[in-house]
Amino acid sequence: MQSTVLTIAGSDSSAGAGIQADLATFARFGVNGASAITAITAQNARGVIAWGAVEPELVRAQIDAVDQVDAVKTGMLANAAIVATVAEAITRRGLRPYVLDPVTIAGTGHALARDDLTPLILDHLVPLADLVTPNLGEAQAMTGAPVRNIEEMALAALALMQRGARAVLIKGGHLNGDLVTDLLCDSSGVRYFQRPRINVGTHGTGCRLSAAIAASLALGAPLDAAVEAGGQFVHEFISGQFIAGLRSDG
Length: 250
Hints:
six-stranded mixed beta sheet; three-stranded antiparallel beta sheet; 8 helices
């Protein structure tokens, strides 16, 4: 039977991020994609134009309508009531492995939550997560400490594990340098994943990375291999965007 991965996230009208990006990623990994939509957004690569949250009861009903779940990921959760609803559903149904992408701000800088969700995510979702995948800004918001270099990334990852996460992948795409370094921390220690930087503006890479990792975990890959596969997938996606951009300018 084909593995099914459930994404609980917002809908992106441009299909660059959110539910649409997740489902496209699941298809590339050969898993069935199921979804529970938490918000409807009008956005594109330039920014978020407008968005509205789905009623929590409807979010819960969408989750419960998916019978088979071999892995789950969350992205945009929009408000406090939805965070509580998702935490309850994941706990009640024992949905694992669970990849938590703590999205509250779009890559373009626009807010994707009505409330300050960071304390709620820390209290209710991080302890459920098999993997948390913050970028530098999200890691800083979640730990209350600066995250500006590799050493501070490691400290932030350890702090999130102390809050109950089984593993943490801090994305280093916003650091300077010719290489992009992501840091993975779990009970066996700290590992680094590096790839050449590609200077092209795109959005939704964090969504695609967490979706790719969730898909790999659903297929039975160990965590290290799932992170490597996810990083390689995103690198190839960005490379394709870069090539398309060059061609459009030619």
